[in-house]
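Students often ask why we bother encoding 3D structure as a string. The short answer is that it lets us treat folding as translation between two languages. Here is a chain of 142 residues written in the first language.
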Amino acid sequence: MYTVQCFEGAKDTMSVADRVKYLRIALLVMGLIFIFGIYPLTIVWPSGWSWNPGQSEYLQMILGIYATLGVFLVIASRNPMAHRSLIWFTVWSSVVHGGIMAAQAFANTQYMGHLWGDVSALFVVAIVLALLTPRGGGVSTT
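And here it is in the second language, the structure alphabet:
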């Protein structure tokens, strides 16, 4: 069993097999959203997902980076324990990217909608993957 203490006094116990099962689902869903979902979100909710109006070079770059990461998250969903470094890269890069965007949103109030859009989404990605990824080298990859 793998025990996580979410906050003082509360413990959540989940077996490593269950944790990996849910991690596989999370990686697949997040990967598909990164590949297919970010661009539509910039169209339907631009104040929460698009930092510049229209098809800026910045947006094209971000879409390319996240679509590529999405492909690798889908691949990692097949055998997450063999791809832990990619998962932890996704966790920490999401925290850093979300933190920078949050600071920019507070500094430029025209971007406050992003706190409820892409900033929150990146923190959710980081939290879900961090909580589901088993630690330690003795975990089976099957």
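Translate back mentally: The first strand starts at residue 2 and ends at 7. Keep this in mind for the problem set.
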